[in-house]
Amino acid sequence: MILCGHTHVPRAAALDDGRLIVNPGSVGLQAYADDQPHPHRIETGTPHARYAMVSRTASGWHAEFHAVEYDWHTAAATAAARGRDDWTVALRTGRC
User: How many domains, in total, are found in the chain?
Assistant: First the structure.
């Protein structure tokens, strides 16, 4: 099992040796734009908080992904009040 993050995109990939790479997604920022190492955007397309549960069974590792509703309107309003227009849109829509 290899757990990773940073991209904010939920995904799992099985390796030939039986290991599973899992990125659970983002609980608090569903989209962002960055210019490092090159200009790019990451978008989940929804404002839901995301996480994953991993388990090991006789057949190997498994990941179950979850998207959870929360009060993203309040989170977006807080970002707007603090001058983070980029986060305001991302929190409300899951897009940049």
Answer: 1
